[in-house]
Every structure is written in structure tokens, then in C-alpha cells.
Amino acid sequence: MLSQNSLLKRTWPMLVQSMEAHRKPRWLPVAKSKIYRIPKRPVIPEEERLELMRLHNNYKTQMRSIRRFYHEEMIKERSSRESASSEMSKRIEAEEWVKCVELNDSWNKQVAAEREERRKHEVAALEEYALKRMEALDKLKEAKIAKAAEEIRKQKELSKTFITPETIDAAIDHAIANPVDYNFAIDLKGNKYEGRDTQITRNQGKQEKAASANA
Amino acid sequence: MPFMKGKAPIRRTLNYLNAGRLVLKDKIKIFSVAYNIIGQNNQGAKDFVFWYLPQIQYKNPDVQVATLKNLTPSPFIKCYFEDGRKILVDVDNKSKEDILEHLIKTVGKSKAVLEQEAIAAEKKDNPANFGIGCERPCICEIYGQVPCPGVVPLPKFMRGKYRNATD
């Protein structure tokens, strides 16, 4: 922010360049000593007036023609200069534009080629990936089928031993003839005694110990 | 993006913005970048937008810089001139440095032009200038310079009255 003082200082020299005579300010009235002074009208003889008018007219006409001549010349010169410079700049610009477009086209072409190459690779990779997945899926299916076939074969073999209405009597007879007892007991040492009615001798463990000691 | 974490906030520093090298030609009015945020071929364009677009906008305050995100199959940069011409730059699978170099070569002002403009700008308002219409009307306002004789009389050894005195 410029201060007022600095602004004054900046503009002061621009405004006041020349020395001026001291003048009466506009708002003061006519000086006392000049109140009744009436300036005399200048008296110019008719001949002189005509002569002066002729001279003035001549001067004005000549000056006007000179001024107009220089003015027109300046305009002409300026227009010619402008057109030349603008044509020059336009030509330079057009050349530059052509150069830039050429450069850009070559760049774009190169990028397009690279992209095509990349796209090809990508498509190939995608294809490979899809094929791999399909193969894996096929393998899985095959394995499943093989497993199922194996199961069927096993079951078929087992089916020979199945109990059917025809063989049920024989099976019952066989079961009655060979009873199976799943009961068992465990003592503190972890020995397993199978069967519900198995006889357990008390000193069986001691005897074993003695045997091991003897050995 | 956190305010002051990582290396990204450097984009907001004045030094970084001033270091931008791409000053577009005067006739370019719009600079648009179209890119996607996924895909390796978009990485360069994405980085370009992230790192260089602030510099470009700072260096070209009168150019409209637009980004079109996720609206294109492949990334590109398009510049619109004031007389309706357009220039399209394909930036598919290019690094951000490559893109910047190419743009400087095609749509940026050349080094010579930039230097000329810098010189012209410097002449206009050099803070060292003084006189009517400048920042200071007289060199005597600077501390350490000889004050104007109208304000403070010159030292005696500089004044003719004393220098040329004959006794």
C-alpha cells in the first residue's frame, strides 16, 4: 500500500515541470487600484486587417497541408510496417505449427505402434490364462470322476458280502454261533482286559514285575 | 492427502510451482488431460496430473486446465487453440517425464522466446530503477546514498564554492 505522501512525491515532479509567474488566485476580486481601469480597444485599420487575415489564412493553409502530409505519411508507414511484421510473425507461427504437428504425429504413431504391440501381448497372456484355467478345471473334473469310479468298484466288491433275504438265515446262524463281546476294563497301569466275564488274578501284575526283575 | 505428510505437499510450495518448465504458447486456451486411474498404461498420465499439473496451471494462469478422469479407453492430452485448431497427444504407456519433454517440444514456448520474455519483463519493473514513474523518484531515498543537496547540503569538499575557492 502506497502512503499518500509517497504518492504525492511520485506525481509531484510529473505535474509541476515548469516555473510559473505568480498570479492572483481566481477567487480574489479585482484589485482596488484596477477597479475603474477600462482597457482600450485595439484599433486596426481596415487595410492592415485584411492583410493580416490574408497572411494568417496563408499560414494556416500551409501548416494544415504540412500537418496532413506528415500524418498521412505516418499512417501509411505504420500500416506497411505492421503488415510486414504481422506477415512475418504469421509465417513463423505457421512454420512452427507445421513442425509441431509433424513432431506430434511421429510421436503419436510411435505410441500407437507400441500400444498395438502391448495389446497383442496382453491378449496372448489373457488367452493363456484362460486356457490354463480351463485345463485346471478339466483336471479337477477328471479326478472327481476317477474317484467316484473307484468308489463304485469298491462298493461292487463289497456287495458280495452283503446280507440279502436269501442269506439272512445263514448270517443269523453264524452270528449266534460266534458271539462278540466288546466290553473291556482298564486297570491303573493301562492294561486292557477284554470280555465281560474274563477272570482277573490279583497278583498277575506282581508276578510280571518279578519276572522282569529276574530277567 | 494429509496437509504436511509425505512428499506430495511439496507441490504446494512456491519454489516447486515456479520450477515448472512448461509455458504454453499464447494461442493455447485450453489444456485437457484425459486418463484412467487403473491400468499400468495410465500410470504415467496419472503421475503427470499429480506432479506436473499444478506447475502448468501456475505457469499458465490464463489457460483453462481440465482433467477428464475415467472417461476414455486410453489416456491422451488435447490442447485447444484460440482459432479452433486442436492438437492431440497420445500418452499411452509413457512416463510423466517423457510426456513433459514432448509437450515442451510441441506446445510449449521455446527456450529463446522464454528468455526474451524474461528480459522484457525485467526491464519493465526493475526495483533498481529510479526516477519519475518508478517506485522511487530519487536514488537519494536509499540508505547510504548521498542525500539530495536541496534536503541536506553537500559536504564541503563536493561544493564548488569551497573547492574552487582561492585565498
From TrEMBL, chain A:
Chief place where the protein resides: mitochondrion
A GO CC term attached to the entry: mitochondrial small ribosomal subunit
Domain of life (superkingdom): Eukaryota
Compartment(s) of residence: Mitochondrion
Annotated TM spans: none
InterPro entries: Ribosomal_mS26 (IPR026140)
Keywords of the record: Mitochondrion, Ribonucleoprotein, Ribosomal protein, Transit peptide
Key word Mitochondrion present: yes
Membership in a protein family: Belongs to the mitochondrion-specific ribosomal protein mS26 family.
Name the UniProt record assigns to this protein: Small ribosomal subunit protein mS26
UniProtKB/TrEMBL annotation, chain B:
Record's keyword terms, sorted: Mitochondrion, Ribonucleoprotein, Ribosomal protein
Domain annotation Ribosomal protein/NADH dehydrogenase: ranges: 40-110
InterPro entries: Ribosomal_mL43/mS25/NADH_DH, Ribosomal_mS25/mL61, Thioredoxin-like_sf
GO terms under cellular component: mitochondrion; ribonucleoprotein complex; ribosome
GO molecular function: structural constituent of ribosome
Superkingdom of the organism of origin: Eukaryota
Protein location: Mitochondrion
Family named by the database record: Belongs to the mitochondrion-specific ribosomal protein mS25 family.
This protein's name: Small ribosomal subunit protein mS25
Source organism of this protein record: Helicoverpa armigera
Organismal lineage: Eukaryota, Metazoa, Ecdysozoa, Arthropoda, Hexapoda
